[in-house]
Hints:
By secondary structure, this protein is mainly β. Helix content is 7%, strand content 34%.
Amino acid sequence: MGNDRASSAGPADDAGSSEHAQDLVVEVGGWEHDCCGPAIERNAVIELSVYPWTGPDGRERLVEGRHDIGEAGTPVYQRVRGRVTNLHVVHEDGTIEAIARVPSGSALCGTDDGDDGHLETPWTGELIAARGSEFLVTLQQAPQVQQAQ
């Protein structure tokens, strides 16, 4: 997947803060999401366990992890929390496309009676023909407020 961390240039909501809100792009998908990942909706406030990973292109990324496999070199997870501001599916050819929501893992696997796992565009609701199992979730984190000493 081609995206990594990005930061927004918008003003902080907190008058006492000298920091800006920060956007984090987290890669979600694969067998871990298929196993037990929940649906992810735009505008929801969520918390994810992530670990840094350096891809074959040399760029560091944040990847969601749901399972401690216990192998040597198991990543150290950290928790991130934020509002979902953008969602993309990563197609097999590496292109990305905006989507309305990330279906749950069980929906993607066809085992959710209430959700067929389809993908749709965020503003028109048109179905996206290609199915995907790799997603980019953009979280906007609240600005960090520095405490007066």
